[in-house]
Amino acid sequence: MEITPDSIVYWSWRGFTLNATLVYTWGVMLILVVGSWMITRRLGTGTEMSRWQNLLEVLVVGMRQQIRATSHQEAGRYLPFVGTLFLYIAVSNLLQLVPGFHPPTASLSTTTALAICVFVAVPVYGIANEGLVRYLRHYIRPTVFMLPFNVIGEISRTIALAVRLYGNIMSGTLIVGILLSLAPFFFPVLMQLLGLLTGMIQAYIFAVLAMVYIAAASAARR
């Protein structure tokens, strides 16, 4: 049983390895791009709308409300980044229901890349909201001696964000695999549903934590 999709190698040539993480990551991105194009190409403004547009509006309104409740700021500037994180993780975990699919979020390289995106987004949004000098000043609060500790705190929470998502998805996949090997006729449906619920919760937690970190570096800090 493969714990991480990194260990599934489809093709290798002169140091370049095409593993399941890369394949399924591009597959999820392709699904998101094509799905977004198909849903948004015929958007209507009337009272009658398609089911897909209705679903899209429910998702966007829900994410706007959650971002506004978390950051206490207007959600427009954060929605593209936080919404993309949530949709990518949610779709990756949702596709676990497809036989043979290996969620890229079960790879530490994927979760680390997502956490690095959050790590970069925090100062970008912080500087955009407060300016460079004012943003850098919070690293020396309450005294200048706190500078190394504040820097370590920024790095450690990024590592925790990556390990948290990876650990939860990987452990869920491992538990499902063990139970399926022990009782293949009793646990499949139940454990797949449990894994799906866990995946959705982890996508929500990752997006909320990303929003909390970004809000902490912006005006909400004041």
From TrEMBL:
Keyword entries, A-Z: ATP synthesis, Cell membrane, CF(0), Hydrogen ion transport, Ion transport, Membrane, Transmembrane, Transmembrane helix, Transport
Instruction: Kindly provide the name given to this protein in its UniProt entry.
Output: ATP synthase subunit a
- The primary gene name is atpB
Membrane topology summary: Multi-pass membrane protein
Q: Where are the transmembrane segments?
A: 20-39, 78-98, 110-128, 165-187, 193-216
InterPro entries per the UniProt record, alphabetical: Alt_ATP_synth_F0_Asu, ATP_syn_F0_a_bact/chloroplast, ATP_synth_F0_asu, ATP_synth_F0_asu_AS, F0_ATP_A_sf
**What is a biological process (GO) this protein takes part in?**
proton motive force-driven plasma membrane ATP synthesis
Provide the family line: Belongs to the ATPase A chain family.
